[in-house]
Amino acid sequence: MRPGTAKSKATVSTPLSRFDIQKIKADFPILNEKVNGNRLVYLDNAATSQKPRVVINAILEYYRKTNANIHRGLHKLAEDATRAYEATRTHTAAFIGGVESEEIVFTRGTTESINLVAYTWGEENIHEGDEIVITEMEHHANFVPWYVLAKKKKAVIRRIPITVCGHLDLNDIDNIINPRTKLVAVTHMSNVLGTINPVKELAAKAHARKALILADGAQAAPHMPVNVKDLDVDFYVFSSHKMLGPTGVGVLYGRRELLESMPPFNFGGEMIGEVSFDRVTWADIPHKFEGGTPNIADVVAYHAALSYLDEIGMDNIRRHEMELTEYAIEKLSRIEGIEIQGPQDIPNRGGAISFTDKDLHPHDISTFLDSRGIAIRAGHHCAQPLMRVIGKIATARASLYIYNDEADVDTLYNALVEMRRYFGL
Amino acid sequence: MRPGTAKSKATVSTPLSRFDIQKIKADFPILNEKVNGNRLVYLDNAATSQKPRVVINAILEYYRKTNANIHRGLHKLAEDATRAYEATRTHTAAFIGGVESEEIVFTRGTTESINLVAYTWGEENIHEGDEIVITEMEHHANFVPWYVLAKKKKAVIRRIPITVCGHLDLNDIDNIINPRTKLVAVTHMSNVLGTINPVKELAAKAHARKALILADGAQAAPHMPVNVKDLDVDFYVFSSHKMLGPTGVGVLYGRRELLESMPPFNFGGEMIGEVSFDRVTWADIPHKFEGGTPNIADVVAYHAALSYLDEIGMDNIRRHEMELTEYAIEKLSRIEGIEIQGPQDIPNRGGAISFTDKDLHPHDISTFLDSRGIAIRAGHHCAQPLMRVIGKIATARASLYIYNDEADVDTLYNALVEMRRYFGL
Amino acid sequence: MSNSLDDLYREIILDHYRSPRGKQPLEHFDISSDGHNPSCGDEISMEVEMDKERATLKNIHVDCKGCAISTASGSILAELIKGKTLDEARQIAELVKKILKGEEVEVPDSLGDLDALKGVRQFPVRIKCALLAWVTLIEGLKNYENGKDEKAVVSTEDDDEKKK
Amino acid sequence: MSNSLDDLYREIILDHYRSPRGKQPLEHFDISSDGHNPSCGDEISMEVEMDKERATLKNIHVDCKGCAISTASGSILAELIKGKTLDEARQIAELVKKILKGEEVEVPDSLGDLDALKGVRQFPVRIKCALLAWVTLIEGLKNYENGKDEKAVVSTEDDDEKKK
Ligand SMILES: Cc1ncc(COP(=O)(O)O)c(C=O)c1O
Ligand SMILES: Cc1ncc(COP(=O)(O)O)c(C=O)c1O
After folding, report:
1. For residue D21, what are the β-bridge partners?
2. Closest Cα partner for A379 from B288, B76, D132, D37?
3. D136 belongs to a structural domain
4. How far apart (Å, rounded) are the C-alpha atoms in residues B46 and B238?
């Protein structure tokens, strides 16, 4: 089953009222801000999301009441801080399908999670002639570490191409994933095209070749229910800051046996067992991978983000975004000169909507929209190889989240229409 | 000149009134909290410091008004966020003696800063037979990365011993730092003994052998003026969370030529120049070392911590802590059975005061003090090799900061006296 | 709140701490086992002389370098385990584990001192101190029963109590 | 605040953007130079035919794939640089750099269109778009003067404007 296909296709006639958007908007203080004289319309969620009051307050509360360094401390603050930190781990493990707490490692973000795997598992398991499979739509974070590792080890990078519609082209997949394959590294959802990839199918293919699979969930985890056991992936990585949580927190899920077999990454306090001048042993997982003082306050506050998402329900979030994505694609397509990139079949895509204007560079689009209070992103979205494949120098990207509604899309639509007039097109 | 000797020796008769401690205490919301029914007396500053309201509010403001992903963004929030993030870099560069902004790399903390150097500079420059010099008083963060690197490269770790007083023993230094030496990695201030080490002297010795020197400033940067140019170190590392700033932010200072010559660490977005499937180039320093979305909010808020420290003045902070350290050592030494570890000469030490009780294990001390609202740390302080050298299984450690005063020390003194009674000693 | 402090350092605990039982080194022993708590620095070493006919733990020597809790726990162990069969000793050790995990268990009168360990549960970071002697014993017994000659060595990794 | 937007996209800029000068490819050229802005994707290529006797830039062709700002900036360049000596061309390029850095400079009437680039300064992330054509020109001139035959290639690394 492809992720997403389980849900019935949304139609524009379904009202966007399953949860109360006005109430949700009110939970996000920044959405009341004015930007260049206009109320902020934030459509840059694939870059980073905004934070609800409960998350901001969790940081506040932590520093006001609990702040202490964790583990080893015998005083009450240290105990409270440790408990709060570890509670986020437990919640994260539940959030992605009920894995074990020890299988959750906290990092700075998706990028560090992937690099951790490359520096530890990759360093020990990739050898000359081995193959690492990626896709043409990877974010630099899920391409460059493998490129560098392959170069160092004389391994080979193979890539799964994309179709003109922006889906993975699986025609040749049984050649691409072959007995030399050691790892399949694939994004669960593209940050440029919005495509949701068939991770479960690819996991089966990888495992049939005795290869591992790492899924980059940076764009998927914030926007749809994720069950890593059902997907049957070996590693799954994502970032707090894209899912209502603070910056500086990332997650690496790894299967217990894998994490246990891997060497540590950053060496220092908290990750050791015993240290003498002649001998060093490592702590058990997950602490083995969390050397040094972690980003305690933000890990603690990330808990509030997960709870907020749980409360709304990832299923509801996915449904809302499907409806809104359909609405937005339909509306933007009406504007002359605007071309939507990526799949148009809603069940197989998320709410990152890249578009181009046949006459205007994305940077001009972004600057114009900003003057109207609308935040989108323009550029290569850290996916330069994909840009070459789709033959664009850059795209403009509007990306949706739970606090966006039809009114936001309408504001975008109207501004784009006005823009073309402004530039005399 | 040894750091610290420039200042005149403080005497207990000097009143601790150079700045208004009550006003400072009032800036730290957590100091109004009750712990186990008593007002919190926080003496675990070497583990992590508390945060003043301005720092907490900076995080709040950031998420309420500015939050966006930095660099590349063309909308106003992204510009504001980028400017705020880079302003912290500029301030950090000024804070450690006026280096160039590009010589400042943001990491998660001291531990990651050191690992970054080991994974990049170390990986390329340490070879079989080379020697890395450390001291017997290093934190695991400045020992284990070098231990692991040396093991991998068949290099040799040499150590500078300590005297019974807890100073570095430099008698044999010209043998220890020798033509095979490639790196001297030394803590600027010991987190266990409080010792301030003669980094400048060691830098001269290292450079005379064409070796580099890395100073671990995790305990020094928060507590005394630091000028990395005057110290003439090649790398200097420290953590925001120990100097009033948020968790999850660390600093690596590196000389421009070094940073430029080093390969990147974490690969992904923001750190690349150009990426195609066949070729990848790197961004310039410092961005080359900051792959992925950094801990934006906390870097921005760290600025407020630096400003707060500047306002009080690092000279004043050092003077205050010298006076208070002298007061505390004098007072605690009076208690029968309590033994102070580390140097007793105040100009050559900071305010991390380790002590032991001849009858009681440090854990029992810490648990008892906690019941009186006093937070100290007990254990090996991530310096197990040092513990072996000083022949202790663990120590209790009270560590001071700007918001501590004589009353806090008196509370500690009284509780220790009461403790010995409680345990029937 | 010094109530909970008194709960941790109950009179029985303090008594065992001040005058630990089993201090007397053994001339002959059949089981030898070392335990170590790297994150605290607690160290314990233990020898047991077996009564081979009756298969009981005839004599026990416990040497503990650690905090009041680990010392008291080792002393309680020395007192309670003496004269017990292998099975009984193991059962008592399992009972202690349950107590420290916070399970609701009845402590028989004959093992009354174990009740004093219940106070430790309010202090999560101290639980491993209380456990150390008991896991060290279990390892020693295991080796003995498996006919292994070498000394058992136990090292509790840090933060065990934080794992589920 | 669309004032500042109008400041960025002044009529002169929009005019150059809509009908860029220097579009005509050259049959013969003496200088060839490519510029690239990897973080934006702006690409420019430029050829110059020299009048060797008078040492002036006789003809110039600018081909720009980029935003309105980089296109307009390239077009202004093509217009202003034509017929200038190498030294004059370099001086104009330096003047543009100063304008974009925010230095207070007088723009002579003869270079009036450069004034329109002042609006870019309010948009820090767009500065490198405006700069691209000019640094590409400078590199081309350098190669020519050093007698190098190969094409000059410029790649502005990202975030240049954030460095001091
Ligand atoms: C001297 C010293 N070095 C390194 C560290 C590690 O710092 P962090 O845990 O912030 O990475 C510490 C703090 O624990 C320290 O005191
Ligand atoms: C698909 C994808 N992977 C990886 C990343 C990198 O995430 P981070 O910057 O949080 O490390 C992103 C976000 O930019 C992304 O969209």
Report:
1. none
2. D37
3. yes
4. 12
Instruction: Quickly count: other Cβ atoms within 10 Å of residue B389's Cβ.
Output: 16
Residue-range definition of the domain harbouring residue C125: 3-151
* Phi and psi at residue B213, to the nearest 5°: -130, 130
To test the pocket of ligand 1, the residue of A72, A272, A293 to mutate (highest count of ligand atoms within 8 Å of its CB) is A293
Stated as kind and residue range, the H or E segment containing A388 is helix A384-390
Q: Yes or no: say if B16 and B406 are a contact pair by the CB < 8 Å rule.
A: yes
Whether B274 and chain D come into contact, CB under 8 Å, resolves to: yes
Helix or strand (DSSP H, E) at B94: helix B76-95
**By three-state DSSP, how is residue D104 classified?**
coil
B165 is catalytic: no
Rg (CA), chain B: 22
Distance of CA C31 to the CA centre of its chain: 15
Has residue D162 been placed in a domain?
no
**Fold exhibited by the domain B56-310:** Aspartate Aminotransferase; domain 2 (3.40.640)
**Interchain proximity A71–C163, CB inside 8 Å:** no
Q: How many independent structural domains does chain D possess?
A: 1
* Predicted confidence band of residue A5 (pLDDT cuts 50, 70, 90): very low
Among the listed residues B78, B170, B314, B382, the single catalytic one is: B382
**Chains touching chain D at 3 or more Cβ pairs under 8 angstroms?**
A, B
- Nearest CB partner across the interface for B291, out of A111, A143, A384: A111
**B16-45+314-422 adopts what CATH topology?**
Aspartate Aminotransferase, domain 1 (3.90.1150)
Average pLDDT along chain B, 425 residues, taken 10 residues at a time: 38 51 96 92 98 98 95 85 97 98 98 98 98 98 98 98 97 98 98 98 98 98 98 98 98 98 96 92 96 98 98 96 97 97 96 96 95 95 95 95 98 97 90
Judge whether B30 and B40 are in contact, CB under 8 Å.
yes
- On whether any CB of chain D is under 8 Å from the CB of A361, the answer is yes
Alpha-helical runs (H) found in A216-374? 228-231, 256-261, 296-312, 314-333, 362-371
pLDDT in tens for each of the 164 residues of chain C?
A: 446 899 999 999 999 999 999 999 999 999 999 998 877 778 899 999 999 888 899 999 999 988 999 999 999 999 999 999 999 999 999 999 999 988 988 888 888 889 999 999 988 889 999 999 999 999 999 999 888 777 778 877 533 333 33
* D157 → closest Cβ in B86, B101, B284: B284
Query: Residue A377: closest CA among chain B residues belongs to which residue?
Result: B73
Nearest CA in chain A to B40: A77
Among B44, B48, B106, B110, name the best residue to mutate to test ligand 1's pocket (greatest count of ligand atoms within 8 A of Cβ). B110
D74 three-class SS? helix
Residue A179 touches partner D, C-beta closer than 8 Å: no
Distance from CA of D107 to the nearest CA of B (A): 28
Buried-exposed string B159-191: b where 16+ CB fall within 10 A, e elsewhere: bbebeeebbbebeebeebbeeebbbbbbbbbbb
If DSSP codes are grouped into helix, strand and coil, which group holds residue A208? Answer: helix
Question: What predicted TM-score, i.e. pTM, was given to this entire model?
Answer: 0.93
Query: 3-state DSSP call for residue A254?
Result: strand
Entry field: residues in chain A = 425
Ligand 2 centroid distance, CA of A142 (Å): 8
D82 lies in a domain? yes
D157: tokens are 């690394």
Give CA separation, C82 vs A87, C78, C89, C133, in Å: 41, 6, 9, 14
Q: Is the peptide bond before B286 cis (omega within 30 degrees of 0)?
A: yes
Looking at the complex, does the CB of residue D41 fall below 8 Å from at least one CB of chain A?
yes
Place of tokens 């909970």: C4
Give the CATH number, domain containing residue C99.
3.90.1010.10
Question: Which residues of chain A form CATH 3.90.1150.10?
Answer: 16-45+314-422
C131 within domain boundaries: yes
ipTM: 0.92
